[in-house]
Automatic annotation (TrEMBL):
Function noted in UniProt: Component of the Mediator complex, a coactivator involved in the regulated transcription of nearly all RNA polymerase II-dependent genes. Mediator functions as a bridge to convey information from gene-specific regulatory proteins to the basal RNA polymerase II transcription machinery. Mediator is recruited to promoters by direct interactions with regulatory proteins and serves as a scaffold for the assembly of a functional pre-initiation complex with RNA polymerase II and the general transcription factors.
Similarity comment text for this entry: Belongs to the Mediator complex subunit 11 family.
Quaternary structure annotation from Swiss-Prot or TrEMBL: Component of the Mediator complex.
Keyword annotations of the record: Activator, Nucleus, Transcription, Transcription regulation
Protein's name in the database: Mediator of RNA polymerase II transcription subunit 11
InterPro entries assigned to the protein according to its UniProt record, in alphabetical order: Mediator_Med11
UniProt GO MF annotations: transcription coregulator activity
Organism from which the protein derives: Nicotiana attenuata (Coyote tobacco)
One Pfam assignment: Med11
Length: 92
Protein backbone atom coordinates (compact mmCIF):
# COMPACT_ATOMS: atom_id res chain seq x y z
CA UNK A 1 0.00 0.00 0.00
CA UNK A 2 2.94 2.32 0.72
CA UNK A 3 4.23 1.78 -2.79
CA UNK A 4 0.84 2.56 -4.31
CA UNK A 5 0.72 5.81 -2.29
CA UNK A 6 4.20 6.87 -3.41
CA UNK A 7 3.96 10.48 -4.73
CA UNK A 8 6.20 9.66 -7.69
CA UNK A 9 4.01 6.65 -8.55
CA UNK A 10 4.39 2.96 -7.83
CA UNK A 11 7.49 1.18 -9.06
CA UNK A 12 6.47 -1.61 -11.40
CA UNK A 13 9.13 -4.10 -10.25
CA UNK A 14 8.18 -3.69 -6.56
CA UNK A 15 4.48 -4.11 -7.35
CA UNK A 16 5.28 -7.22 -9.42
CA UNK A 17 7.39 -8.64 -6.55
CA UNK A 18 4.64 -7.97 -4.01
CA UNK A 19 1.99 -9.49 -6.29
CA UNK A 20 4.14 -12.56 -6.91
CA UNK A 21 4.76 -12.96 -3.20
CA UNK A 22 1.04 -12.56 -2.46
CA UNK A 23 0.09 -15.11 -5.14
CA UNK A 24 2.64 -17.58 -3.75
CA UNK A 25 1.16 -17.16 -0.28
CA UNK A 26 -2.33 -17.80 -1.70
CA UNK A 27 -1.07 -20.97 -3.46
CA UNK A 28 0.57 -22.16 -0.24
CA UNK A 29 -2.70 -21.61 1.61
CA UNK A 30 -4.60 -23.54 -1.07
CA UNK A 31 -2.19 -26.47 -0.82
CA UNK A 32 -2.48 -26.50 2.97
CA UNK A 33 -6.27 -26.33 2.80
CA UNK A 34 -6.41 -29.21 0.30
CA UNK A 35 -4.21 -31.33 2.55
CA UNK A 36 -6.32 -30.49 5.62
CA UNK A 37 -9.57 -31.27 3.79
CA UNK A 38 -8.15 -34.54 2.47
CA UNK A 39 -6.98 -35.62 5.92
CA UNK A 40 -10.34 -34.58 7.42
CA UNK A 41 -12.14 -36.78 4.87
CA UNK A 42 -9.93 -39.72 5.80
CA UNK A 43 -10.61 -39.23 9.52
CA UNK A 44 -13.13 -41.69 10.91
CA UNK A 45 -13.97 -40.64 14.46
CA UNK A 46 -16.20 -43.66 15.14
CA UNK A 47 -13.87 -46.25 13.65
CA UNK A 48 -12.99 -47.74 17.04
CA UNK A 49 -16.31 -46.98 18.68
CA UNK A 50 -18.00 -50.02 20.20
CA UNK A 51 -21.41 -48.36 20.69
CA UNK A 52 -23.22 -50.21 17.89
CA UNK A 53 -21.97 -53.71 18.78
CA UNK A 54 -22.59 -53.04 22.48
CA UNK A 55 -26.17 -51.89 21.84
CA UNK A 56 -26.79 -54.86 19.52
CA UNK A 57 -25.57 -57.22 22.24
CA UNK A 58 -27.85 -55.56 24.78
CA UNK A 59 -30.80 -55.97 22.40
CA UNK A 60 -29.88 -59.63 21.86
CA UNK A 61 -29.74 -60.18 25.61
CA UNK A 62 -33.19 -58.61 26.03
CA UNK A 63 -34.56 -60.81 23.24
CA UNK A 64 -33.04 -63.88 24.86
CA UNK A 65 -34.52 -62.91 28.24
CA UNK A 66 -37.92 -62.53 26.56
CA UNK A 67 -37.67 -65.94 24.84
CA UNK A 68 -36.63 -67.56 28.14
CA UNK A 69 -39.57 -65.97 29.92
CA UNK A 70 -41.89 -67.33 27.19
CA UNK A 71 -40.39 -70.80 27.69
CA UNK A 72 -40.95 -70.48 31.45
CA UNK A 73 -44.59 -69.53 30.80
CA UNK A 74 -44.99 -72.50 28.45
CA UNK A 75 -43.43 -74.80 31.05
CA UNK A 76 -45.83 -73.55 33.72
CA UNK A 77 -48.75 -74.04 31.35
CA UNK A 78 -47.67 -77.61 30.53
CA UNK A 79 -47.17 -78.38 34.22
CA UNK A 80 -50.64 -76.96 34.87
CA UNK A 81 -52.14 -79.29 32.24
CA UNK A 82 -50.29 -82.27 33.71
CA UNK A 83 -51.48 -81.39 37.19
CA UNK A 84 -55.04 -80.97 35.94
CA UNK A 85 -54.84 -84.30 34.09
CA UNK A 86 -53.53 -86.05 37.22
CA UNK A 87 -56.31 -84.49 39.31
CA UNK A 88 -58.86 -85.58 36.73
CA UNK A 89 -57.47 -89.14 36.74
CA UNK A 90 -57.52 -89.23 40.52
CA UNK A 91 -61.20 -88.29 40.53
CA UNK A 92 -62.08 -91.08 38.13
Amino acid sequence: MDEMANPSGPRKELINNHCSEFMQLIKDIQVTLREEIKSACEYRPFEKCDYVPRILNEIRCKKLEYVLSQFDDMKRTIEGYHAAALDHMALD
